[in-house]
Amino acid sequence: MQGTDVQSAGGQPSSNGSTPHTRRAPAELLRVEGVSKEFKVGGGVVTALRSVNLQLREGEFIAIRGRSGAGKTTLLNIIAGLDDPTHGRIVLFGRDLANVKEGERTAIRRNEMGFMFQAAHLIPTLTARENVGLLLRLSNTSAAEREQRASEALALVGLGERQQHRAPELSGGEQQRVAIARALVHAPRLVLADEPTGNLDTHTGLAILDLLRNVAHNAGIGFIITTHDPQASAIADAVYDISDGVLSPGQK
After folding, report:
1. Could you report the per-residue pLDDT of 76-118, keeping only the tens digit for each?
2. Which tens digit of pLDDT belongs to each residue from 46-64?
3. Environment class of residue 177 by beta-carbon count within 10 Å: exposed (0-12), middle (13-18) or buried (19+)?
């Protein structure tokens, strides 16, 4: 997770002889500029996104609301570099994705981004800790470090006592917490979550949203979630509505 630099405010000593310090402004993680996406279907063209603009900074938690088919998942796929816009550009971690090759995009997703989905997608034969540590295997992390980091991530989401349980032994809310730990274990800068509370009851969904927001603020990780959940409006730092591919500021 990214540390927070401090810098002097004007370099002038304070009255007690020490130099005052201020936290730097949160860095920009993502800028979406005029993004449109068109798909050729049969003899026609379907427009999934229309001139979308969006900005995300460190520690910011953004919710995007919209019905199924409105363009939410298409936007997340383009932000992640899994698809390219027809028009416009994505600037991710200061780099225009149009100039980033597929191998580099894969490395960015693996090392600097986390992902969550409506279903937890846990491997049922593995323990919670083993599920969380799977991603670290791809980066050749040692077994000892893998276990330590997975344990720390599970403790962060309140499952320190459940790490040896397998997925079928966990409740739906606990399984989604394991998915959160898996998304965070490699200290990403940005997490994309597609309907993370879609399969949960109201109480559990609110607890998951609150946890994600707290992680964003405390660790400086940027979060974008897509949701149908009306509770997200009260939790998020900013809310957007998407309809027929048009993204606009929403009411909290």
Report:
1. 999 999 999 999 999 999 999 999 999 999 999 999 999 999 8
2. 999 999 999 999 999 999 9
3. buried
C-alpha dihedral sign at 122, 142, 111, 103: negative
Q: In the numeric block, which tokens belong to residue 21?
A: 């310090």
pTM of the model: 0.86
> Which residues, listed in sequence order, are joined to residue 247 by a DSSP beta bridge?
242
CA–CA dist 161, 148 (Å, integer): 14
Which tokens is 141 given? 């992390």
Spatial CB neighbours of 80, under 8 Å, sequence gap ≥ 6: 109, 113, 115, 192
Decide if 148 contacts 119 (C-beta within 8 A).
no
Q: How far is CA 131 from the centre of its chain?
A: 18
Two tokens, residue 176: 């989604």
Are 109 and 53 in contact, with CB atoms under 8 Å apart? no
**Residue 146 in this model has a pLDDT that exceeds 50:** yes
d(CA 37, CA 45): 10
